[in-house]
């Protein structure tokens, strides 16, 4: 049977970064709480001119060529920081990237989970149409609010994955299992810019959904944890992922792979829908121990709650599709002070009576939101 899976994977982050040791100092908290207790180092900070569209477009532009744009017939964008109640952010991205017109563009929502659903939708779409390509984007800006319990776990960024037949990075195994439970651990009402969070309850839900779904997965597929070289988990903050992994009784090698899989997340923070895939990118770019044929187990968790377990197999030559200087790029982002973070991350667009915005910051990124004009978002692209 033809293999289907991830052929290319791209990442976009905003330019600014806040060190958590600086945040800890400003909040009068022992820095070890953030760096050891949560196992986080820094968070990516998006200015007003960056949103899920600009970040999603940038992550996609980093991997797509003209042939891809001519064959993509579906764009699925998972997010929980939507910019419009009606128009899908994927439609803007379709336009900004110049993808051929006969494509479907949609947005999916279920907290941090929805991009994993998008990946399986892409898999099934390619199964029926092996010549087409699907662009799956996970794009989010995670804001919990100043001095909130979740503040040190914020972040911003996007992952783009091109799903095709005969993929060159990861073949999906088609063994997905899911669980839904109606709980109030984290949610964001329409009238609120920040989520409501029952923080400690959410951490228990994350782990309980993982263990119960893994028992179901094992039963259904007659597999055990030993079948996997590595486990990638949703990473709201790295310690949460480690607690989840340990609840499955991993081997020392699986714990080593986990430490490789959180390196990017520790420097970026939570990017909600993209966090699981950022962790996968970190694993395959940072691990020297993995090889083609290795099986990887994925755990996606979205509060509310829906979770999913599925697996994939690394494809021969996968390392040729990756970047070797990503940690260097992370280290070269522009550091921002706590005072500037409080301004940049939390300022909002002011709209006048006619639906026009006040001036937005000048932004040299490949894609930027430059204005709101009569309630219409206006984007600028520097890509041909
Ligand atoms: N030195 C070292 N470690 C320290 C320390 C110090 N001085 N002070 C505290 N710690 C440790 C604590 O022992 C704790 O570690 P353990 O859990 O291993 O014991 C850790 O630091 C955190 O301390 P607290 O639990 O006291 O921290 P908190 O209550 O202020 O905040 C939180 C924790 C509630 C999870 C908060 O970060 C939060 O609200 N986060 C947002 C919600 C979230 O991410 N939930 C995850 C599951 S839900 C999900 O996955 C979806 C999603 O993306 C949101």
TrEMBL record:
<feature type="domain" description="Hydroxymethylglutaryl-coenzyme A synthase C-terminal">
    <location>
        <begin position="182"/>
        <end position="248"/>
    </location>
</feature>
<keyword id="KW-0808">Transferase</keyword>
<dbReference type="Pfam" id="PF01154">
    <property type="entry name" value="HMG_CoA_synt_N"/>
</dbReference>
<feature type="domain" description="Hydroxymethylglutaryl-coenzyme A synthase N-terminal">
    <location>
        <begin position="3"/>
        <end position="165"/>
    </location>
</feature>
<dbReference type="InterPro" id="IPR013528">
    <property type="entry name" value="HMG_CoA_synth_N"/>
</dbReference>
<comment type="similarity">
    <text>Belongs to the thiolase-like superfamily. HMG-CoA synthase family.</text>
</comment>
<protein>
    <submittedName>
        <fullName>Hydroxymethylglutaryl-CoA synthase</fullName>
        <ecNumber>2.3.3.10</ecNumber>
    </submittedName>
</protein>
<dbReference type="InterPro" id="IPR016039">
    <property type="entry name" value="Thiolase-like"/>
</dbReference>
<feature type="active site" description="Proton donor/acceptor">
    <location>
        <position position="234"/>
    </location>
</feature>
<dbReference type="GO" id="GO:0006084">
    <property type="term" value="P:acetyl-CoA metabolic process"/>
</dbReference>
<dbReference type="InterPro" id="IPR011554">
    <property type="entry name" value="HMG_CoA_synthase_prok"/>
</dbReference>
<dbReference type="Pfam" id="PF08540">
    <property type="entry name" value="HMG_CoA_synt_C"/>
</dbReference>
<feature type="binding site">
    <location>
        <position position="243"/>
    </location>
    <ligand>
        <name>(3S)-3-hydroxy-3-methylglutaryl-CoA</name>
    </ligand>
</feature>
<feature type="binding site">
    <location>
        <position position="270"/>
    </location>
    <ligand>
        <name>(3S)-3-hydroxy-3-methylglutaryl-CoA</name>
    </ligand>
</feature>
<feature type="binding site">
    <location>
        <position position="144"/>
    </location>
    <ligand>
        <name>(3S)-3-hydroxy-3-methylglutaryl-CoA</name>
    </ligand>
</feature>
<dbReference type="InterPro" id="IPR013746">
    <property type="entry name" value="HMG_CoA_synt_C_dom"/>
</dbReference>
<feature type="domain" description="Hydroxymethylglutaryl-coenzyme A synthase C-terminal">
    <location>
        <begin position="255"/>
        <end position="342"/>
    </location>
</feature>
<feature type="binding site">
    <location>
        <position position="30"/>
    </location>
    <ligand>
        <name>(3S)-3-hydroxy-3-methylglutaryl-CoA</name>
    </ligand>
</feature>
<keyword id="KW-0012">Acyltransferase</keyword>
<dbReference type="GO" id="GO:0004421">
    <property type="term" value="F:hydroxymethylglutaryl-CoA synthase activity"/>
</dbReference>
<feature type="active site" description="Acyl-thioester intermediate">
    <location>
        <position position="112"/>
    </location>
</feature>
<feature type="active site" description="Proton donor/acceptor">
    <location>
        <position position="80"/>
    </location>
</feature>
């Amino acid at each position: 049977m033809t293999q289907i899976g991830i052929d290319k994977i791209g990442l976009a982050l905003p330019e600014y970064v806040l060190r958590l040791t600086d945040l800890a100092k400003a909040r009068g908290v022992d820095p070890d709480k953030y760096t050891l207790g949560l196992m986080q180092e820094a968070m990516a900070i998006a200015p007003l001119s960056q949103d899920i569209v600009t970040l999603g477009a940038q992550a996609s532009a980093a991997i797509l060529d003209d042939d891809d744009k001519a064959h993509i017939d579906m764009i699925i964008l998972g997010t929980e920081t939507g910019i419009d109640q009606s128009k899908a952010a994927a439609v803007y991205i379709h336009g900004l990237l110049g993808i051929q017109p006969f494509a479907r563009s949609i947005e999916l929502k279920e907290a941090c989970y929805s991009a994993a659903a998008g990946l399986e939708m892409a898999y099934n779409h390619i199964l029926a149409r092996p010549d087409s390509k699907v662009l799956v984007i996970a794009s989010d800006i995670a804001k919990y609010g100043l001095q909130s319990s979740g503040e040190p776990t914020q972040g911003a960024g996007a992952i783009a994955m091109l799903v095709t037949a005969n993929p060159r990075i990861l073949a999906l195994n088609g063994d997905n299992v899911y669980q839904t439970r109606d709980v109030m651990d984290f949610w964001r009402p329409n009238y609120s810019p920040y989520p409501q969070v029952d923080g400690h309850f959410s951490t228990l839900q994350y782990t309980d959904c993982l263990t119960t779904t893994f028992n179901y997965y094992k039963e259904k597929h007659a597999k055990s944890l030993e079948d996997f070289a590595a486990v990638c988990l949703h990473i709201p903050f790295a310690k949460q992922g480690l607690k989840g992994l340990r609840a499955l009784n991993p081997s020392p090698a699986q714990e080593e792979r986990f430490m490789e899989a959180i390196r990017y997340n520790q420097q970026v923070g939570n990017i909600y829908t993209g966090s699981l895939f950022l962790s996968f990118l970190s694993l395959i770019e940072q691990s020297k121990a993995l090889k083609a044929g290795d099986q990887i187990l994925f755990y996606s968790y979205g509060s509310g709650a829906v979770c999913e377990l599925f697996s994939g197999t690394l494809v021969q030559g996968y390392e040729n599709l990756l970047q070797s200087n990503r940690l260097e790029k992370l280290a070269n982002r522009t550091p921002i002070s706590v005072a500037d973070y409080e301004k940049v991350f939390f300022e909002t667009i002011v709209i006048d009576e006619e639906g026009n915005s006040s001036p937005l910051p000048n932004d040299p990124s490949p894609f930027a939101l430059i204005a709101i004009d009569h309630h219409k978002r206006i984007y600028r692209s520097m890509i041909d």
